[in-house]
Amino acid sequence: MRFMYVVTSSQPMRGPTPALMEAMHKLAEREIKAGRMVDSGGLMPVAMGGAQVKITDGKLGVVDGPFVETKEMIGGYAIFELRNKEEAVAAAREFMQLHLDHMPDWEGTCEIRMMASPESEMNCQPLRPDVDAKLAS
After folding, report:
1. Which position has the higher pLDDT, 111 or 52?
2. Percentage helix, strand, coil, to 5, in the chain?
3. Which of 33, 31, 34, 23 is nearest to 5 (CA)?
4. Enclosing domain of residue 24
5. Mean pLDDT of 94-120
6. Closest to 108 (Cα-Cα) out of 121, 96, 119
């Protein structure tokens, strides 16, 4: 199963320390060699620019950045090939522990999402059909 990790923080102006970067690099090297990490990357601050492509009122539009800072910023992502959700949570805990060890006053979240695929048994199916049925009514 593929999982995407999305790391967010309400402290967007605080980038990782050199020690944290080194620790994350070592972890990534290990996970890549083991065949578990498929891809990863950090994102530049929104103040560095970018663009948004939106659909509003049935029309496609493009808004160029830089953008106003928001409460929570996405700092990076990783994609893993793992056996199950439990393994995904364990790997995310290890990754977030690096932040706690090297930047103890940093606050953030690592959201874990299963990726849809043609081979997936649960390809975009709700985890709770009873909730989906209530939403449809």
Report:
1. 111
2. 35, 30, 35
3. 31
4. 2-136
5. 92
6. 96
Which position has the token pair 């849809």? Answer: 116
Buried-exposed string 65-76: b where 16+ CB fall within 10 A, e elsewhere: eeeeeeeebebb
What would the pLDDT profile of 37-77 be if each residue is shown by its tens digit? 999 998 887 777 788 899 999 999 998 877 766 778 888 99
CATH of residue 25's domain is 3.30.70.1060
Element (H, E) at 38: strand 37-42
Q: Alpha helices of the chain — where are they, by DSSP H?
A: 18-33, 85-102, 129-136
Q: Looking at the 3D structure of the chain, how many domains does it have?
A: 1
Q: What angle do CA 41, 26, 107 make, to 5 degrees?
A: 60
pTM of the predicted model as reported, rounded to 2 decimal places: 0.78
**74 — phi, psi (to 5°)?**
-80, 125
Burial letters for 85-119: b for 16+ Cβ neighbours within 10 Å, e otherwise?
Answer: eeebeebbeebbebbeebbeeeebebebebeeeee
Is the confidence at residue 93, as pLDDT, over 70? Answer: yes
